[in-house]
Amino acid sequence: MARIKVHELRNKSKPDLLTQSKRLLVYKNKKYLPLDLSPKKFRAIRKRLTKHHASLTTDREKKKKEMYL
Questions:
Q1: Cβ contacts of residue 20 below 8 Å, gap of 6+?
Q2: Res 3 pLDDT > 70
Q3: How far apart, in Å, are the Cα atoms of 69 and each of 9, 32, 61?
Q4: Other beta carbons less than 10 A from residue 42's beta carbon
Q5: If we measure between CA atoms, which residue out of 4, 45, 52 comes closest to residue 24?
Q6: Within 10 Å of residue 20's Cβ, how many Cβ atoms?
Q7: I need a surface site. Which of 17, 32, 34, 65 has the fewest CB within 10 A?
Q8: Per-domain residue ranges for the chain?
Q9: Backbone phi and psi for residue 68, each to the nearest 5 degrees, phi listed first
Q10: Residue 24's CB: how many other CB atoms inside 10 A?
Q11: Is the Cβ–Cβ distance between 14 and 22 less than 8 Å?
Q12: Got the DSSP string for the chain?
């Protein structure tokens, strides 16, 4: 129930929709999100390395780069 979709509105009661929208506002700038509020993406996208982790290099890689430049 990460984002409320149009076809889901028919099945939900009004209090359910209100509580979800309130919970989204409460957790908006928090470090961790409950799983039911987190964005529902493909598993591969969720498990992908962050930009920061992908850009990190080991000491050995740094030394190799310095040698051959």
A1: 1, 4, 37
A2: no
A3: 59, 42, 12
A4: 8
A5: 4
A6: 17
A7: 32
A8: 6-67
A9: -100, 15
A10: 15
A11: no
A12: --S--HHHHTTS-HHHHHHHHHHHHHTTT-S---TTTS----HHHHHSPPHHHHH---HHHHHHHHHT-
Structure tokens at 27: 């957790």
Q: Cα 15 vs. chain centroid, distance in angstroms?
A: 26
pLDDT of residue 53: 94
> Chain-centre distance of CA 7, in angstroms?
23
What are 17-64's pLDDT values in tens digits? 788 888 888 988 898 888 888 777 888 888 899 999 999 999 999 999
Alpha-carbon gap, residue 61 to 59, rounded angstroms: 5
The model's pTM is 0.44
